[in-house]
Amino acid sequence: MKIPNEYKELTWQGLWKNNPGLVQLLGLCPLLAVTSTVVNALGLGLATMFVLICSNATVSAIQQWVPKEIRIPIFVLIIAAFVTCVQLLMNAFTYGLYESLGIFLPLIVTNCAIIGRAEAYASKNPVKQASFDGFMMGLGFLFVLLTLGAIREVLGQGTLFDGAQLLLGDWAAGMRIEVMQLDNQFLLAILPPGAFIAMGFLIAAKNKIDAKLAEHQPKEPESQIERVRVNFDS
């Protein structure tokens, strides 16, 4: 099965080249505040991905009826509607995680990554491509959240998947892994300043990998530009 180049490019853009967390640096407030554990990161990442997909699809479907002058307020209303759906669902089925995420769950409405994709891509492209773009951007954001959550949880508490039952039910309590024994919690990793430092290392690692990849790319020969000399002596 041959995958169209457009979808390959959307995948590359969402997961790596234009990742909302590592490159665009959008939606950093919840990313830095909530990723103290992997479970919190997974919950917020899935909620953000759901809103991204649904809002992109809706914005694309109604693009021809939205007046250009009031498009941003309409996009915000659409995003707010889907965030409310996520809140109600999490309140009903994962109440512990709903309380743990707190104010950062409704603040998804103000996530610049979501409204940015609605404006930059969904409002100009068909529903299918817009939905796929929302999925890939959400997946890229989720990967960054999970990586940051894993680093902070291991350094701060010495565990992984602590509190998994808040998201997946009582059966998931056995998923908790004790990576290393800590006598006391490492507060710097748990608090937002630790998230800033870990985020800086992630961005530096991505830049390093990009530089290595660029070194292996074939370099195009520089074109010689012939200069024209104008002589007024004759």
Could you explain how this protein is built, in words?
This protein is mainly alpha-helical and 234 residues long. 63% of the residues lie in helices and 2% in strands. The protein is built from 10 helices and 2 strands. It has a two-stranded antiparallel sheet. Helix 1 packs parallel to helix 7 (127-157). The N and C termini lie far apart (68 Å). 34% of the residues are buried.
Q: What pattern of helices and strands is seen along the backbone?
A: HHHHHHHEHEHH
Give the strand order, joined by hyphens, for the main sheet. Answer: 1-2
Rg on CA atoms, Å: 22 Å
Count of strand segments: 2
SS content category: mainly alpha
Silhouette: globular
Strand percentage, roughly?
under 5%
Q: How far is it from the N-terminal to the C-terminal residue, by CA?
A: 68 Å
The biggest beta sheet, please?
2 strands, antiparallel
Query: Helical stretch count?
Result: 10
Helix fraction by DSSP (H/I, runs of at least 4): 55-70%
Question: pLDDT below 50 for ≥5 consecutive residues: which ranges?
Answer: none
Average predicted confidence as pLDDT: 87
Task: Offer a few descriptive terms.
single chain, 234 residues, mainly alpha, two-stranded antiparallel sheet, 10 helices, globular
